[in-house]
Amino acid sequence: METAILLSTFNGELFLAEQLHSIFDQTYTSWKLIIRDDGSTDNTLSIINNYCEDYTDRIVLIKDEYGNVGAKKSYDLLLLKADAEYIAFADQDDVWKPEKLSIVVEEMKRLENEFGKNMPIMVHHDLEIANEKLEMQANSFYHYTGLSPSFAQKNVILWRNVIPGCAMLINKILAKQAGTIPDEAVMHDYWLVLFARFTGKIVFVPKALTIYRQHGKNSLGAEKKAIHKSWREIIGSIRNSGKNSAAFLKKFRVYQDQASAFVERFSENDNRISAVREFLLLNSKTSRLKRKWLVLKNHFLIGNFNEKMEQLFCC
User: Fold this and answer.
1) 80 vs 39: CA distance, rounded Å
2) Confidence of residue 239 (pLDDT cuts 50, 70, 90)
3) Superfamily grouping for domain 3-213
4) Torsion-angle region of residue 220: left (phi > 0), alpha (psi -120 to 50) or beta?
5) Rounded (5°) CA angle 149-151-157
6) How would DSSP label each residue in 144-196?
7) 3-state secondary structure at position 114
8) How far is CA 102 from CA 21, 209, 256, 313, in A?
9) Contact in structure between 60 and 33 (CB atoms under 8 Å)
């Protein structure tokens, strides 16, 4: 088994069979599917068991005593079982293009040849956006959301993840370095992105290799790009910057909790995470002038010029 595909399920009977079919339809075949069900009460387990009977050598169904622990912890438990060179993550409601694994594994091998197998590496790709009937809504996740894969190379990744778990492939050393997913992590995939960003390499494949199904029960989804604020709205926000500063800092709190847990995994003199340490200083105990300096110094701002100015004045 060269690649482990991790799949956590929960009441996924509506779309699970399509996802499983797309995995078995991959042109790349050196993989094993490891599934953990997170306490489903519908027919999800029946669907999985039928596939297990048909593909006894390709599927491992994890059975444990933890019950319903949520997606983050469920994938953490799956990662503990993933003894493979490469690890991919599947969502129960998506559909993979047949060439998905072949393309990302080939790119991973190229990068390991260039940087060595001791380099933590994440390869990720674009996605198509579809509704629950798999009717196309957008041909690019990044165009649809207004995000950019380049954000993963910048410090804004500390408070805005741009890589869905279902679009990533990681190597063994990255999984080992990331270790157990802490409670403070926003999500398992976000935690892995931080380690790839600050200790290794993140490489984007500009091809939509997964159909990202959007429906009413997504754990997380793709938010359509917001309309840019006008100058009048920006100026109004700046005038109220004192009041808005508290809201700005509050928005950062959950990401700072994650960053704090991340920093604990490193020695104090590790310069690779200096920006992460300064991200933690964006709080009410730090003067507004110093906060602005830290934001500018570390390029924490995101969006167009207007939006960046608003963030700078309100921080």
Assistant:
1) 19
2) low
3) Spore Coat Polysaccharide Biosynthesis Protein SpsA; Chain A (3.90.550.10)
4) beta
5) 125
6) HH---GGGGGSGGGGT-----GGGEEEEHHHHHHH-SPPTT-S-HHHHHHHHH
7) helix
8) 16, 10, 36, 46
9) yes
Handedness of CA 66, 194, 272, 113 (dihedral sign): positive
Question: Nearest Cα to 129, choosing from 164, 171, 176?
Answer: 164
Closest to 173 measured CA to CA, from 124, 123, 120, 122:
120
Q: Please, what is the end-to-end C-alpha distance for the chain in angstroms?
A: 49
Q: What are the DSSP E strand ranges found in the chain?
A: 3-9, 31-37, 59-62, 86-90, 95-96, 121-130, 136-138, 168-171, 201-213
Q: How long is the chain?
A: 315
Sign of the CA dihedral 158, 93, 219, 227? positive
Q: What is the C-alpha separation between 98 and 25, in angstroms, rounded? A: 6
- Alpha-carbon torsion 160, 104, 191, 268, what sign? negative
Per-residue pLDDT band for 45 (boundaries 50, 70, 90) equals very high
Give me 179's structure tokens: 């270790």
Map tokens 């990044």 to a residue: 142
Q: Give the start-to-end residue ranges of the domains of the chain.
A: 3-213, 231-314
138 Cβ contact partners less than 8 Å away, ≥ 6 residues apart: 128, 129, 144
Give dist(CA 218, CA 97) in Å, integer: 20
pLDDT tens digits along 269-308: 999 999 999 999 988 788 888 988 888 899 888 877 777 8
Angle 194-305-146 from CA coordinates, rounded to 5°: 55
Query: Model's pTM, two decimal places?
Result: 0.90
Strand residue runs (E) in 131-197: 136-138, 168-171
What one-character DSSP code corresponds to residue 61?
E
CA distance 71 to 3: 21
